[in-house]
Amino acid sequence: MFIQTQDTPNPATLKFIPGVPVMAQGTADFADSDSANQSPLARRLFQVDGVTAVFLGADFVAVTKAEGLDWFALKPGILAGIMEHYASGMPVIEKDAELADPHAEDGDSDTVQQIKQLLDSRVRPAVAMDGGDIVFQGFDDGIVTLQMRGACQGCPSSTATLKMGIENMLRHYIPEVREVRAAEL
Asked: What are phi and psi of 149, to 5 degrees?
C-alpha cells in the first residue's frame, strides 16, 4: 500500500491519502480517543503519541498533532497505523455505528435547503481537498453558523475562508444571508 501525504493550510494537520476509499458516505470527526470507539482506524491512530484528532473523509484521513511536535517524528507511526489497519481487514467504522448525518433534517426552510445545497456542491469539495469539512449548524436572523471540522478546525486561514469565500458566495446567491460565523466549540 502506498499512502500519499499532503500538507493542509493548517500546519497542525496532515492529510493521508491511502489510495482506497476511507468513508463510503459522509465523514467522521474524532476530537479525542474517547470519541473514537466506533472507528477501529481512528482508535489505532490515537495510539500514536501526539495525535490529538482524526478526521475521516471519502478518500483521506486527516490527522492533527499536538503543538510542539514535529511531523517528521509522527509521520512514520501514523503511516504504519493506516497500513496495519487496512491489512487487518477491519472496517474503518463499526458496522452498527451510528454517525449523525449533519445534513439530514426534515422540515428545513427553502433558504436553509439552498444554503445546504450550495455548501454541499461548492464549498465542501473544496475544503475536502485541504483535509477538512464544513458542516451547517444553523440559520437565524440572516446569520449562517458553520462548524469547521478536520484540518479546517483551528486553521489560521479558516476565518478568511468563512468571511471572504463562503459568506460572499452565500450572500451572492441567497439575499437573506447577512453573515457567516464559525460555531463556538
From this structure: -130, 160
